């Protein structure tokens, strides 16, 4: 059941703090936040960054849910992690230990009904994708998901057809406007700033639980996170085996890069699913993207087309990947990768 | 109307009969509903219906073209197919039925007249019945979810399976919205589904950012499918012939009492910014040189 926590910490108020949208026409944003190990996760900062584009004087509140001291630590971190944040709302309940969609959507609905934000923003990662539409249904509004550009409080651009077209949509409904943004389109700023007021919240969720978390199977890795790495090295089906994929990993290590894979490589069992880059996998936009043995199918390109520099190595000179690559090398990856390993400088 | 209410009360009761470990809150029971509860608890529901959503979209291999007037994407004379994620959804439903855990698979499509083709494909794959809600114009996921909910109230399935996203609008919203509107648990981006009819629950492995998450949902539930859940079957010739005589029920949004006016408006459809043309390099040395001295990325 819900635990009420009433900690009110009187701290310096930010000069630009504006009251919530009880004043008609003003913008106020609730960011649905994630935290881990006592700190707010990077994607949440992207969402806060995106909220800036909704309009002037936008007061941003971050909603964190969970339980225990890691939640409290994360709340303190949230209070000072971005200049736009003026409020942190904390929901403390064991319903949120595993961040299931059902209690989360209900929480968002309750917070919205009580506080009346004009906008609710999250990042379109697997958490945001799972929760936001359900919350939107409870609030009876259409969400706008996977936004790459915000031009005001009601107009957004989102990719369709695997990013081969862009759709500009206008939200014409009543508050709240719910949106999820691509973190690659709104990179988070670095550095700490003023601390703001921390608030607590009643968390009243239905006590009948229709879903429960069982387990998470994940790979332990020291590689940088694929979602925000500066360099990504991706392998396709041409690697032929999980053993050969180790070459990709070696190259990634040399470059301090994350490892990515095409759907074909994941389907073939060379690597786990969380390395998949593509329309229905992860969307990445690193400084440098190296694709080895990747044909360049529409669905894969959808996941990496916003990379700053794209390098492709493929034996087939007609592979579609060369149309999107900045530098293409027609050659055998089994020769090119060892040569690169030899000639590239140490990171 | 009274009859409907009665059915609703009975129905809402069957939702509240999960296994003991999940029930943790008392609520008001009337005598008749208690009796219903006892009867339903003694024998698990024998006839579970699965509803599957299928959508007609531009084929995944087609290179799409944006119309010069920016009003949309060219669909005239373009190959249309069942959304790949919907094929996977239907395949999963058929497998569950073939395992003896469901009695009927109902395929549902919501769209213009031509969507019937996709429905017939679904029937050819093995769905028992089809439902076509004929609706023209841009339908956003909220309207689709509301129409779906109206159908659920008529058909009363024990499980709903949808594709996680349609490859045209890439929204990835409808399944979650249907679950929210119905108040059912959701298992999204499923890469494995295991039904336990005795316990009236379903274990779903979900593909998430950090790997694979396993959740356990009480039935009735909503599942959305990800790519690796299964490999859909091809419709065999005998099944294509059989599909012609399988029943298809038609509805309109008006008949289902669902308004389709949206709170979203498409302003324009444009092409994404084009990348500058790339160059082919002839050796690894040249590549390293360019990356270092031209692109400045290493």
From TrEMBL, chain A:
It holds the Pfam family ETF. Binds 1 FAD per dimer. GO terms for molecular function: electron transfer activity; flavin adenine dinucleotide binding. Transmembrane segments: none annotated. GO terms for cellular component: mitochondrial matrix. Residues 29-207 form the Electron transfer flavoprotein alpha/beta-subunit N-terminal domain. SMART domains: ETF. InterPro entries: DHS-like_NAD/FAD-binding_dom (IPR029035), ETF_a/b_N (IPR014730), ETF_a/FixB (IPR001308), ETF_alpha_N (IPR033947), ETF_asu_C (IPR014731), ETF_asu_C_CS (IPR018206), Rossmann-like_a/b/a_fold (IPR014729). Keywords: Electron transport, FAD, Flavoprotein, Mitochondrion, Transport. FAD binds at residues 237, 262-263, 276-280, 293-300, 314. The keyword Electron transport applies. Its cofactor is FAD. It is found in: Mitochondrion matrix. One of its GO terms (biological process) is fatty acid beta-oxidation using acyl-CoA dehydrogenase. Belongs to the ETF alpha-subunit/FixB family. The electron transfer flavoprotein serves as a specific electron acceptor for several dehydrogenases, including five acyl-CoA dehydrogenases, glutaryl-CoA and sarcosine dehydrogenase. It transfers the electrons to the main mitochondrial respiratory chain via ETF-ubiquinone oxidoreductase (ETF dehydrogenase). PANTHER family: ELECTRON TRANSFER FLAVOPROTEIN ALPHA, ELECTRON TRANSFER FLAVOPROTEIN SUBUNIT ALPHA, MITOCHONDRIAL. Heterodimer of an alpha and a beta subunit. This is Electron transfer flavoprotein subunit alpha. It comes from Linum tenue.
TrEMBL record, chain B:
It is found in: Mitochondrion matrix. The lineage of its organism: Eukaryota, Viridiplantae, Streptophyta, Embryophyta, Tracheophyta. PANTHER family: ELECTRON TRANSFER FLAVOPROTEIN BETA-SUBUNIT, ELECTRON TRANSFER FLAVOPROTEIN SUBUNIT BETA. It comes from the Eukaryota. SUPFAM superfamilies: Adenine nucleotide alpha hydrolases-like. GO terms for molecular function: electron transfer activity. Belongs to the ETF beta-subunit/FixA family. GO terms for cellular component: mitochondrial matrix. One of its GO terms (biological process) is fatty acid beta-oxidation using acyl-CoA dehydrogenase. Its main location: mitochondrion. Residues 70-260 form the Electron transfer flavoprotein alpha/beta-subunit N-terminal domain. The keyword Transport applies. The keyword Transcription regulation does not apply. Keywords: Electron transport, Transport. InterPro entries: ET-Flavoprotein_bsu_CS, ETF_a/b_N, ETF_b, ETF_beta_N, Rossmann-like_a/b/a_fold. This is Electron transfer flavoprotein subunit beta, mitochondrial. It comes from Linum tenue.
